[in-house]
Amino acid sequence: MRRIKAIMIFELKRIFQKPQSFLLMFGMPLLFTFIFGALFSSDSEPKPNIVVVDEDHSTLSKALINELESKNIMELSLENAKDARSKFDDQKITGYIRIDKGFEEQILNKDIPVIIFVYSPSFNGAKMIEQVINDSMVKHRIVASASSVYQEITGDNWKGVQEKITNELATSDGIKNIPITKNKELETMNNMTARSAGFTIMFVMISLLISTGVFLEARQTGVWYRIMSTPTSKKEILIGYLLAFFLIGWIQFGVLMLVSTFVFNVNWGNMLGIFVLVSCLLLCTIGLGLFIAGFVKTSEQQSVFGNLIIVSTCMLGGVYWPLEIMPNMMQQIAKFVPQYWGLEGFAELAVRGGTVADVLAPSGVLLVFTIVFLFVGMTRIRFE
């Protein structure tokens, strides 16, 4: 046990004696969290500036404009056709919607009016706005048809009925929102929390990958020859190094969790669940490092190939951006990388207020990864 402890302390000192280690382990993940957390924050995305040209000036055209404005997905303003085209040409607005004269008459005659939506090809949100316009058009055609029938039966003016139906449809009465969460204080996972968890995972993996390169470095420099000339066994060497890697990972994770809690207001959730999940994630990362070390010859090669693997799998696993924006096929492939299951576990704890029981599944998957990586890696590592 004394030899194992000596190897562990030696490796810890070796890592933290390097000034660049602090930048990689603590500075970079906090910087990436800040940049990407703000980048994908919904609060930081400006709404598209859309102008409406209403050439019909009718009850139904005004109702359509009010409906579009109520969606709260774009900044709407009214302009005449000339000013709208001028502002669009000068790139002062994202686009404009034109409601031609005869819009109301066409709807009342049960025809399908054409709404012109002009936008720049570079505007990525065009499809969403087109869908909103189409949905609003369908709604107003139904309301107008119902109002006309009501007028025929009762003799009342259809405009009053149309306004009443539209106002009733615009309310949320009768709709009860029920957020699915185990903890009422944790209803949503803000983007900063997601990015903080993701980049903490990424840089812990990179740091441990560099640390596990000591196996190759020790073999190259002859350190293992000198250690094995003492009564220290191979088993003691391996246990000492693995414990050192595990502690290095926990020190890094612990510091980043503490800083992100106070700086980015991240709520990590149940601490026992965090301990189980992070421990499994660290073991999986150590296993990945040994797995890569078993297939390369030098620590430099391990660093190059390892960083390539980690960065690419982090992109796939949802570290850099939300998985929801990725194609469905890529979301399914993401389940075959450890980062995905790490983020799933953090989502259970930080979003839904779960406990240790709720992270048993992702932790179990991480342990399966660990067993595979360690088995292959340990069989390929050579002490001589």
TrEMBL record:
<feature type="transmembrane region" description="Helical">
    <location>
        <begin position="271"/>
        <end position="292"/>
    </location>
</feature>
<feature type="transmembrane region" description="Helical">
    <location>
        <begin position="304"/>
        <end position="323"/>
    </location>
</feature>
<keyword id="KW-1133">Transmembrane helix</keyword>
<keyword id="KW-0472">Membrane</keyword>
<feature type="transmembrane region" description="Helical">
    <location>
        <begin position="237"/>
        <end position="259"/>
    </location>
</feature>
<dbReference type="Pfam" id="PF12698">
    <property type="entry name" value="ABC2_membrane_3"/>
</dbReference>
<feature type="domain" description="ABC transmembrane type-2">
    <location>
        <begin position="159"/>
        <end position="384"/>
    </location>
</feature>
<dbReference type="InterPro" id="IPR051449">
    <property type="entry name" value="ABC-2_transporter_component"/>
</dbReference>
<keyword id="KW-0813">Transport</keyword>
<protein>
    <submittedName>
        <fullName>ABC-2 type transport system permease protein</fullName>
    </submittedName>
</protein>
<feature type="transmembrane region" description="Helical">
    <location>
        <begin position="359"/>
        <end position="378"/>
    </location>
</feature>
<dbReference type="InterPro" id="IPR013525">
    <property type="entry name" value="ABC2_TM"/>
</dbReference>
<dbReference type="InterPro" id="IPR047817">
    <property type="entry name" value="ABC2_TM_bact-type"/>
</dbReference>
<keyword id="KW-0812">Transmembrane</keyword>
<comment type="similarity">
    <text>Belongs to the ABC-2 integral membrane protein family.</text>
</comment>
<feature type="transmembrane region" description="Helical">
    <location>
        <begin position="21"/>
        <end position="40"/>
    </location>
</feature>
<feature type="transmembrane region" description="Helical">
    <location>
        <begin position="197"/>
        <end position="216"/>
    </location>
</feature>
<keyword id="KW-1003">Cell membrane</keyword>
